[in-house]
Amino acid sequence: MITLQHILVYITVLLALVFLIKKFLLPKKKTSKTCGKDDCGCH
């Protein structure tokens, strides 16, 4: 019998795996090198 505690553990593990996959395995989007109108501290 699956209890509420098991469901919460499965959801937590799933969210952690999704976070790790997004952070390390998916390619990062390239950001433009220009600062634009505001000073973003890239000088």
UniProtKB/TrEMBL annotation:
Domain of life (superkingdom): Bacteria
Keywords for the protein's UniProt record, in alphabetical order: Membrane, Transmembrane, Transmembrane helix
UniProt KW Transmembrane helix keyword: yes
TM segment ranges: 6-25
Record's protein name: FeoB-associated Cys-rich membrane protein
Source organism of this protein record: Abyssalbus ytuae
